[in-house]
Amino acid sequence: MTAPGALGALAPFRTRSFRFLWPADLLTAWAMEMETLILGWYVLVETGSVVLLTLFGSLMYVGTLVSPVVGMLGDRLGLGRVLTGLRMVYACMAGVILVFAFIGKLHPTVVLCVAALAGVVRPSDIGMRSALISSTLPAQHLVAALGISRTTQDSARICGALLGAGFMAAFGMTPAYLVIVSMYLLAAWMTFRAAGSSPDSSANPAPAAVACADCDVYRAARLHKLGLQPGPWDHVVALAGNPNTGKSTVFNALTGLRQHTGNWPGKTVARAEGGFAYADRRFQLVDLPGTYSLLSTSPDEEIARDFILFGRPDVTVVVADATRLERNLNLVLQVLEITERAVVCLNLVDEAKRHGIQVDERQLARDLGVPVIPTSARFGRGLPELLAAIAEMAARKVSGFGYRLSQEPPAIRSALADLTTRIEQAYPGLPNARWIAMRLLGGDERVAEALRRGELSALAERAARGTEGVLRESSLPAR
Question: Which residues pair with 321 in a beta bridge?
Answer without folding.
Answer: 347
